[in-house]
Amino acid sequence: MKKIILLFFLLFFFKTSAQTSDTLVLKNNDILVGEIKIMNKGVVQIETDYSKDDFKLQWKHVKNIGSERIHIISLINGVLMNGKISKINAPYKCEITNVETQTKSIIDLADIVYIKPVDESFWDRLDASFDVGIKVTKAQNLQQLTANVNLGYTSKRWYGTAMYKHLQSIQDDSEPIRRIDSELSYVHLLPKDYFIPLSITTLSNTEQDIDLRVISKAGYGKFLIHSNKKYWGVASGLSFNHEKFKDTSEPNKSLELFIGTDFNLYDIGDFSIQTKATVFPSITESKRVRTDFSLDTKYDLPLDFFIKLSFVYNYDNKPKPGASKDDYVFQTTFGWKLN
Questions:
Q1: Which Pfam families does UniProt cross-reference here (predicted)?
Q2: CATH of the domain spanning 19-120
Q3: Which three-class secondary structure string do you get for 224-239?
Q4: Which end of the chain has fewer CB atoms within 10 angstroms, the N or the C?
Q5: Around 186, how many Cα atoms within 13 Å sit in the side-chain half-sphere?
Q6: Where are the domains of the chain?
Q7: DSSP three-state, residue 296
Q8: 25: helix, strand or coil
Q9: What's the CA gap between 277 and 305, in Å, rounded?
Q10: Nearest to 264 by CA among 305, 301, 222, 227
Q11: 3-state secondary structure of 172
Q12: Greatest Cα-to-Cα distance within the chain, rounded to the nearest angstrom
């Protein structure tokens, strides 16, 4: 019996000893020990044994960091690597060992824009959010529902996102209003902040008599700014537009160019702002130009809840005869995120 107890004790000791911990030293010299979940957009998230919830703090408040685990690390100059992070005596600096080349570099913490452990499970790499808005009035029996779902997955050299937005409005003495947006995108990351974007988006709205518009895009882009305060990316390429309008039997198909920009500002307290704009000059339809624009402003609340203000606008200078050239939606929603 004593041998069995001793064996269990040794197994427990070796298992405990084998566990590696990440260390964060803050600028006030407080020390957090646990497992880094992610550092992105200027915020680092760490799980500890002595806290029910993960700690989230601004990256600029971290003075030293150390971890023996392998992480995906992205730098402000566009360098992307798999490496281990070692704590050194110099404040606001660390040593990164590239596990692929075994080279070591001293890096300023301010130059690190992204950290993600490569050994995390599927659920640890998944981000999700859901927000909803409801409006009901006695006047004209107005009933309005807006719902938005966003999913994101980050891997070693790529990330993918899925989005679904639904607006439905019904009231007396008026035709029902409906708008549905969805997007499935894949971005492959390249050295020096270049990337390859692939996506499929759909749109259905009653304002422009669009039963269904499906847009397939492939292009090439670059992050012009990529830091712990903001990022700004631009991309261009080809787009195939397949659209079916209300009361038409045959779908319309066209080949387009696209030029897009994506700007995200997140080092402004609990606020974050993201805006996207894409222009589609047609190749196969003479002088046709379409434009898609979106603006999302989000305010984070405790317990991962948030309030979001959104504006979506799309324009087509050659719509279906009799339909509107543009359509827009402004909405306020309340939601929750999982990350």
A1: DUF481 (PF04338)
A2: 2.30.30
A3: EEECCCEEEEEEEEEE
A4: N
A5: 9
A6: 19-120, 124-338
A7: strand
A8: strand
A9: 27
A10: 227
A11: coil
A12: 88
Tokens for 60, please give them.
């600029």
> Tokens at residue 30, please?
């407080």
Report d(CA 260, CA 257) in Å as an integer. 10
CATH superfamily of 124-338: monomeric porin ompg (2.40.160.40)
14 three-class SS: helix
pTM of the complete model = 0.78
The one-letter code for the residue type at 279 is V
State the amino acid at position 139 in one-letter form: A
Kindly report the backbone phi and psi dihedral angles of residue 270, in degrees, each rounded to the nearest multiple of 5, phi listed first: -85, 0
Which residues fall within 8 angstroms of residue 186, CB to CB, at 6 or more apart? 158, 159, 160, 197, 198, 199
CB 238 within 8 A of CB 256: yes
Tokens standing for residue 262: 């994506």
